[in-house]
Amino acid sequence: xxxxxxxxxxxxxxxxxxxxxxxxxxxxxxxxxxxxxxxxxxxxxxxxxxxxxxxxxxxxxxxxxxxxxxxxxxxxxxxxxxxxxxxxxxxxxxxxxxxxxxxxxxxxxxxxxxxxxxxxxxxxxxxxxxxxxxxxxxxxxxxxxxxxxxxxxxxxxxxxxxxxxxxxxxxxxxxxxxxxxxxxxxxxxxxxxxxxxxxxxxxxxxxxxxxxxxxxxxxxxxxxxxxxxxxxxxxxxxxxxxxxxxxx
Length: 248
What we know:
The chain has helices spanning 3-11, 47-55, 60-67, 115-123, 128-140, 144-157, 162-174, 179-189, 197-209, 217-231, 236-247; strands spanning 17-20, 27-30, 33-34, 72-78, 82-91, 94-101. By secondary structure, the protein is an alpha+beta fold.
């Protein structure tokens, strides 16, 4: 199946997202629902073929941006099929590409590839859950920077939500090498009234994981876990975290 045939398939399923990753079968989804390929087997491309697909339609200026390792979004129309948005980005040195229908341009470029969330945000701009969902999808797409930006928007709409702070802290620590910022978010989260056992656990273990940089974080980690157990004495995650810290 060539790219025009794929775009034709997408045109028959408005609001869809095509995800192209090197050496993996193409996926076509609408929101969280997968759309089956007509012949039963989705195509796949090598890393070099994906790279060529990314570079072929772009202008010299866009090529310069790609060569610099940037993200690139562009839109164009196909006769009788409508308009499509292409979004290219690199993960671990390999290009990836998403293509979505562009019948209704998203109100924010952050929603590239996710028209259903763009529509939801347009209907209710104050809905933090839309940005939460976008963040989780970007994590699934292995795009931590875009995920962080989405959770930051969710945090702005629903401040002092420990679960949102947990996601932001996780991304900063685990994917973006911004550990000090991540720990500060965790410290803030565990002071909030709605903090859950899992956030206490994540905070304590994150502090403990940074002990080589600052041995004093071990005592702080234990204090966080004990504070969590004071509120949730039978929580399995907290009890396991305490066991890990006690045996270290």
